[in-house]
Design a protein that fits this description.
Blueprint lengths: L1 E7 L10 H9 L7 E9 L13 E8 L5 H16 L7 E6 L4 H11 L6 H11 L2 E4 L6 H14 L4 E4 L10 E3 H6 L3 E4 L12 E3 L7 E3 L2 E10 L2 E4 L29
Parallel strand pairs: 8-11, 9-12
Antiparallel strand pairs: 1-3, 1-4, 2-3, 2-6, 4-5, 7-9, 10-11, 11-12
């Protein structure tokens, strides 16, 4: 059974860890029989009425579990994990949903949260109707909005960037091959003008850290040609300090993360 566990707004500016790290730590402590398919960073709305730390993103762990009996267990573990690792001053939220829930409503909510201001009341109404776990764990609890939206966008399969996928993505060398990337299940897709088909033996510059996109529910590494038999991954991390600072004070879409944690 596929299960989505999403965390949001667990840090604050200047923290030594962010939500991305918290989600990755969570996947290292799963119950026996549960495995991690991947961890997805989801971008939500950046707007003056939305309070956030740096980028307004949430983190969703995509898990494969034996059966529905693990859902309350994962919700309890998620709440305990937040209590252990969140930063004072944040507004954490947690969402746990399985593929058997009414995910169409959650997907629609995620798409809304990516482009317009939504509220806690909106989130709770959708979660209740869809039959998914949604809970706040401190502060204003605005993180419930990003947690539910992160599940929706991830379940929709056409948004977000994988920060982990089966094998640690940071484990790839800076220069690898197309074949080495595709061997672990990541599809290499050219996005330049000519969209040539890359050969398995072609070289691929990961730009220091491979950043696959979630396209069609699959991990896809978009690349551009840098010459015959040579490719470069897109999405190189920006330098520190190039993110946004949270200045919003209105309710809705609240989501806090340190820019370099992903």
């Amino acid at each position: 059974m596929r299960v989505y566990v999403c965390f949001d707004d667990t840090d604050c500016l200047g923290a030594d860890r962010g939500t991305g790290k918290l989600v990755r730590w969570f996947t290292e402590r799963l119950p026996e029989g549960c495995t991690t398919w991947g961890v997805v960073r989801q971008q939500l709305l950046v707007h003056p009425d939305v309070p956030y730390t740096s980028h307004n993103s949430s983190g969703c762990a995509v898990l494969d579990v034996p059966d529905a009996s693990f859902l309350p267990v994962l919700a309890e573990l998620g709440a305990a994990h937040i209590a252990e690792h969140f930063i004072d001053g944040s507004d954490p939220g947690l969402c746990v949903a399985s593929e058997t829930a009414n995910l169409d409503a959650v997907i629609a909510f995620g798409q809304r949260a990516a482009i317009e201001v939504v509220t806690q009341a909106d989130a709770y109404a959708v979660a209740s109707a869809a039959g998914v776990h949604l809970s706040g764990h401190g502060g204003t609890e605005d993180g419930i909005i990003g947690a539910l939206a992160g599940v929706g966008l991830t379940a929709g399969g056409w948004a977000g960037r994988l920060v982990e996928y089966r094998t640690p993505l940071r484990g790839f060398p800076e220069i690898t091959t197309v074949g080495a990337v595709e061997e672990v299940g990541i599809t290499v897709v050219p996005v330049d003008r000519n969209v040539q088909v890359p050969k398995p033996t072609d070289s691929l510059d990961t730009q220091g850290w491979l950043r696959p996109r979630l396209w069609g529910g699959r991990p896809v590494a978009p690349v551009t040609s840098t010459g015959p038999g040579s490719w470069s991954a897109i999405g190189k991390q920006r330098g520190a300090g190039q993110g946004h600072s949270g200045t919003g004070t209105g309710p809705g879409n609240g989501s806090g993360h340190c820019g370099d944690d992903w």
